[in-house]
Amino acid sequence: QVQLVQSGAEVKKPGASVKVSCKASGYTFTSYDINWVRQATGQGLEWMGWMNPNSGNTGYAQKFQGRVTMTRNTSISTAYMELSSLRSEDTAVYYCARVYVHSGYDRLDYWGQGTLVTVSS
Amino acid sequence: DIQMTQSPSSLSASVGDRVTITCRASQSISSYLNWYQQKPGKAPKLLIYAASSLQSGVPSRFSGSGSGTDFTLTISSLQPEDFATYYCQQSYGRSLTFGGGTKVEIK
Fold first, then answer.
1. What dihedral angle (degrees, nearest 10) is formed by the CA atoms of A11, A13, A14, A20?
2. Out of A59, A105, A114, whose CB is closest to B49?
């Protein structure tokens, strides 16, 4: 069955970087885009960007341009999201999600369990 | 960016009630609209895609409708396990956006 398993919780100081991993199983990793979405405590869902695991091509939300980098290691079916210059407002749960496309319509059909990133001095 | 506005932001309902949540896009998005359910401490779960198609395994009491800028998620008979927060999401372009969410609480 399709699974996305994310790395564990992180605590970082302001100004540092964090790298979250998302290991895929149960499907061909390079056949589906991965998106990253975050959620601050008690808040809504915020889209961060997408990555095509086959080509490595990426697209980022304007808000995160210059601070986020999405990469992958196809040999271990793992996607990564690195966020730099962390500030307290980046404290949130970060999710990876697979994009399924059918008849031109795409949706986020499988999600990781989420990774809590806490930014605190 | 396309803005998505959900209403109401919260509602109280009883088991068995019919519940309707609306989502409005800032520009036409055809049928590129998905709905998700999220329970506390859990990842979102896909309910409806392409505005009206039911994701496999999702109970038939959930339905979606609309196109262009106005969309609706309906729960025909609210069950105890349906108390959660619901989000719409547009997939018209490569940049996705979510609505602010609707929290469905027990009356």
1. -40
2. A105
